[in-house]
Amino acid sequence: xxxxxxxxxxxxxxxxxxxxxxxxxxxxxxxxxxxxxxxxxxxxxxxxxxxxxxxxxxxxxxxxxxxxxxxxxxxxxxxxxxxxxxxxxxxxxxxxxxxxxxxxxxxxxxxxxxxxxxxxxxxxxxxxxxxxxxxxxxxxxxxxxxxxxxxxxxxxxxxxxxxxxxxxxxxxxxxxxxxxxxxxx
Length: 185
Prior knowledge:
Low-confidence stretches: 1-37
Largest sheet: 7 strands, antiparallel
Oligomer: single chain
Mean pLDDT: 80
Shape: globular
Order of helices and strands: HEEEEEEEHH
CATH topology of the largest domain: Lipocalin
CATH architecture of the largest domain: Beta Barrel
């Protein structure tokens, strides 16, 4: 049995019978809840400082692992790892129609959670979110880029990058989600 909770494993649900998919969903909930509370009861989040607006030259495309009409980028200038272990970065999402969504976010690998601190405005300033709170990372829909960043880039199970340089190296060398020991070329 893996030492990591089921959310760190990426099974192919298509390979499981329908009953197996339901059982997997039921079994993963209690493991997730226990792991979140066991992480570090004394953990305190550090201060998140808003970065500069993203620069086009610093945007690194990321693969979210599923087909999407949107393009996803992380601003390399904004990537940082706090003393609290949180990986913070700016995510840029572009639609085919030309719309752009910019957000300043954090991932906590130890608990597999994400937090959106602020959304970017067209003038390059930030609007802090009023209800910014840590949320579990889910695998689909709106959170798919965050799950990809956690699984395939920043987190090695519950271990996050050591520092900014390590986080940037991980971002540039995406791990293969099928074979986490390898990297995509």
